[in-house]
Design a protein that fits this description.
Elements (H helix, E strand, L loop, with lengths): L2 H11 L23 E4 L9 E5 L5 E5 L3 E4 L2 E4 L5
């Protein structure tokens, strides 16, 4: 899957209508590049299709599952994120 295909596939599946102001849970955004290595955590959340990942600097965030290639407890970014 090309990186642009993964991003396009993810965007195609989401739809929302904003009805109130939102404050980000993580004010310091996690910016990842295709090829970056991450570890995946045991943390499970209410969002199907998202995986809890930690980068080499210790920052952890939810990442769309189709943005990463998983192998055990590690994964690699397929495309840019953030």
């Amino acid at each position: 899957m090309k990186e642009s295909d993964a991003r396009r596939d993810y965007k195609r599946k989401q739809s929302c209508r904003i009805i109130t102001a939102y404050e980000a849970a993580y004010p310091d955004p996690l910016v990842m590049k295709a090829g970056d290595e991450l570890t995946t955590g045991e943390k499970t959340g209410p969002w199907k299709g998202w995986v809890w990942c930690t980068n080499e600097h210790g920052q952890s965030r939810w990442i769309p599952e189709n943005y990463v290639a998983k192998k055990g407890g590690e994964c690699t970014m397929r495309c840019d994120f953030g």
